[in-house]
Amino acid sequence: MTSTRATMTTLDYATKDAIRDFLYYEAELLDDLRFGEWLEILDESIMYWAPVRTNRTFRDREFEWQEFGTSAYFEETHEFLEQRVRRLETHMAWAEEPASRTRHLITNVRIAAEANPGSYRVKSNFLVYRSRGERDQDVITGERRDVLVKADDCPAGFRLKHREIRFDMSTILVKNLSSFY
User: Fold this and answer.
1) Domain boundaries, the chain
2) Which of 101, 134, 141, 159 has its CA 20 to 30 A from that of 113?
3) How many CA atoms lie within 13 A of 103 on its CB side?
4) Do 129 and 31 contact (CB within 8 A), yes or no?
5) Higher pLDDT residue, 171 or 37?
6) NCBIfam families attached here (predicted)?
7) What is the CATH number of domain 13-167?
8) pLDDT digits (tens, 9 = 90+) for 56-102
9) How far is 116 from 113, CA to CA, in rounded Å?
């Protein structure tokens, strides 16, 4: 995804606010464990993926992120995300039983209109705090690169069509990646 800076000024404030509200609403759904409702704001053609990050020298930093279709922490379609949610709802997903308590903080939202009307490229930074049991606590940070599409039939006003999750760390030192980002 290219920089959103060049086209940021062409969007009206109402659209920017609506997109930010969508991101905050999504965070609320995830933090409240309302995964079924979260699935409803995802586009049927969604690609939800997190490429592996490798440590590179400054001059080779353009090769830091693995390309789509190669190494990824996850690379999921709508169908696969539905399976994950159904599994969580069985209470037999032992990585999430008891369920993690999460708090998604979304910041530095940058928005650009795409050539296709009603489609927007959105970059945002995230911090996810996760607490599980009495002693397990994780802080996971990174950047999300999303494509949102306007959806009048969706109560959230948009649907998430694409999400690339770029974790800040190259070695993820958490017990599992069972949360959604």
Assistant:
1) 13-167
2) 141
3) 6
4) no
5) 37
6) PRK10069.1
7) 3.10.450.50
8) 778 777 777 677 777 888 999 999 999 999 999 998 888 888 889 99
9) 8
